[in-house]
């Protein structure tokens, strides 16, 4: 009895998809190396959340001695690390790239913009995970924070999930503004969102009006979901709808900014 074997092409990815993925990986590797070549950018991205943990959390014995409270504190700063990485990588990073002649050359090539944007998103996600490494190490050594294997897996997944709206916000800023303006806007956006979102102090100490305002922010929604996954504290019922709503709004802003930039520079 004769048998037939499927063609090799049917058992592998289509050539167009493989080419797209290869270009996306190439852009991601290029952008990662560009960031590594500026050591201060790497140090700031990796150390600031960890320094906040060292200076503001670890000296407080009431926090570090309680597993649930210390886990929530590390989770809050982990959310800040992800938000900071996304805003600086895609906000100031995109704006600085747009100011370079090489970016104009790359965008004039026949390749579609999809692989370039995918590579940028992948690069930003890598930096999000790298920013968590020193924070998690310090939290594990100097606090009672602990995670089960299932909670750790959930935390890894949540990093990618909560990075989505802040990636879109960063791209909206980066494609809409010049490099100098983007840096100022990122800084003026990051820290108010972090404070009001409960990333530096728990929302339980907020006055009632600030707590109500906080629950409408993407930073608070992300914080609540990350804390729920890592420590078991129930998140607000508004957390998921708020995060999804902001994701839709920021996606529209990012698309408008990208298309406006393309039309202004290449029409």
UniProtKB/TrEMBL annotation:
The chain crosses the membrane at residues 38-58, 126-147, 153-174, 181-201, 238-258. It is a multi-pass membrane protein. It is found in: Membrane. InterPro entries: ABC2_TM (IPR013525), ABC_2_transport (IPR000412), Nod_factor_ABC_transporter (IPR051784). Residues 28-227 form the ABC-2 type transporter transmembrane domain. It comes from the Bacteria. Its main location: membrane. Keywords: Antibiotic resistance, Membrane, Transmembrane, Transmembrane helix. The keyword Transit peptide does not apply. This is ABC-2 type transport system permease protein.
């Amino acid at each position: 009895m004769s048998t037939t074997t499927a063609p090799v092409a049917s058992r592998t990815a289509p050539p167009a998809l493989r080419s797209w993925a290869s270009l996306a990986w190439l852009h991601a590797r290029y952008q990662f190396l560009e960031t590594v070549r500026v050591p201060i950018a790497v140090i700031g991205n990796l150390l600031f959340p960890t320094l906040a943990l060292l200076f503001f959390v670890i000296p407080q014995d009431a926090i570090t001695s309680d597993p649930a409270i210390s886990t929530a504190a590390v989770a809050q700063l982990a959310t800040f690390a992800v938000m900071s990485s996304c805003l600086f990588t895609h906000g100031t990073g995109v704006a600085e790239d747009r100011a370079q002649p090489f970016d104009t050359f790359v965008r004039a090539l026949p390749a579609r913009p999809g692989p370039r944007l995918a590579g940028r998103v992948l690069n930003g996600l890598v930096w999000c995970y790298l920013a968590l490494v020193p924070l998690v190490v310090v939290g594990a050594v100097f606090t009672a924070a602990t995670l089960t294997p299932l909670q750790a897996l959930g935390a890894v997944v949540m990093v990618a999930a909560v990075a989505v709206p802040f990636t879109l916000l960063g791209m909206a800023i980066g494609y809409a503004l010049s490099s100098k303006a983007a840096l100022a806007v990122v800084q003026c956006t990051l820290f108010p969102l972090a404070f009001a979102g409960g990333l530096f102090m728990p929302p339980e100490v907020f006055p009632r009006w600030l707590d109500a305002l906080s629950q409408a922010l993407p930073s608070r929604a992300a914080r609540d979901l990350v804390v729920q996954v890592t420590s078991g504290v129930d998140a607000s019922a508004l957390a998921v709808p708020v995060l999804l709503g902001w994701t839709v709004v920021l996606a529209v802003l990012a698309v408008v900014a990208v298309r406006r930039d393309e039309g202004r520079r290449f029409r």
